[in-house]
Write a structure and sequence with these properties.
alpha+beta; 4 strands
Amino acid sequence: MGDFMNIEEAKNKVKASEDYKFLWEQPLILLSLGGSIAYGTNNENSDIDVRGVMFEPVESLIGLSNFEQLERHDKEKDVDAVVY
């Protein structure tokens, strides 16, 4: 297997990178790595798949907006995040 990012390196990147800061600004319940890094099948072209669950925004709870999920996909920065 090549010298690719392991799961601990991916966790550290999600915790420290400005590219993932938007996640830590949410009222998170659960955040997890998914995809090829979680399965150990990643390669040099793999992104970091982040999945999670958060509390629904207050605006949505009181009917001022709709909320289904928060998504951010940026192929240049290898960001692939979906929080429900």
